[in-house]
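tRNA-specific 2-thiouridylase MnmA, pasting as requested.
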Amino acid sequence: MRVLAAMSGGVDSAVAAARAVAAGHDVVGVHLALSTAPGALRTGSRGCCSREDAGDARRAADVLGIPFYVWDFAERFKEDVIDDFVEAYAAGETPNPCLRCNEKIKFSALADRAYALGFDAVVTGHYARLHDGVLRRAVDADKDQSYVLAVLTSAQLSRAMFPVGDTPKPQIRDEAAELGLSVANKPDSHDICFIPSGNTQAFLGARIGIRPGKVVDSDSGAELGDHEGVHGFTIGQRKGLGLPGPAPDGKPRYVTGIDPESGTVTVGSAESLDVWTIFARDAVWTSGVTPSEPVNCVVQVRAHGGLAAAVAESDGTGLRITLQEPLTGVARGQAAVLYQLDDAGDIVLGSGTISGTSTERPVGSEASAGVHTQ
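Structure tokens follow.
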């Protein structure tokens, strides 16, 4: 096959490209220029898309003996990922930009151009496994990235390749060293790639500005303090609330609700964070077929952690996910990813963007509060 290898400049994508070459494919490497100011998007192990990364990708391609190009997707990345990220936070949501990048950039904009140029598939260094259209968790649980790939459709998955998902990360580094790739010991990137400082609140504040509001107690309705914008908060947050102290009972307070229209941030006890039902929009089923019956599954609501057994039902374009045990820190804008346990490794069934939650316990248990739109 003729395949396009997306090479970020890191070790994973370099080894993915190397494995595609070793498998006998006709491979071309491409680095995505995602910043209008590439020199400003890396600070040590934070960030990406710097001139350093482009150079590392080019050197890896030279070692592998494959053609290499740089494609400019900066404007598309700004519109579909960065602007989306800022708008979501301004609306009181907690988005994951890596999902949006995979959905809109790597497996849409990049893939569309690749197919138009005659390539059969796009190769990336994501840690996930894909066989016969079935997406599974990676062998290396600590590096698994299936969560951020669960937004991909069956059509997108049919033209994707994830060569490193069957191998633990330390072995990938060893393989890179054996191949003579200079990125073998390059540090992994952390946090959000377009915020190299790691200060998300400052990044958002510079773009959203000050939108003052009140911090309110969920039980009494008492005003406890002021804030400069709901973008500084997320559901389940405990620190940085700007409050003088804990609740009267001495217990810490947590963000339990965010209302972007009124600017109100509600805080309460840890117990009030328990969620039993999740509602999600924009459902994607990786098989391409929407189940007609409820599905027993495991739901994951954060890239690392936040798992619970559940029953998921489709309502057309959305999902109702009933949990068998409560989850905490579930926020609008996060992805709810559905997995099916399997002896060969967890299968990704699909995903949806969380639009609301309910704290009401399932039938047979003591009822709690009602629906949270957060």
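Note for the archive: The two ends are 48 Å apart (CA to CA).
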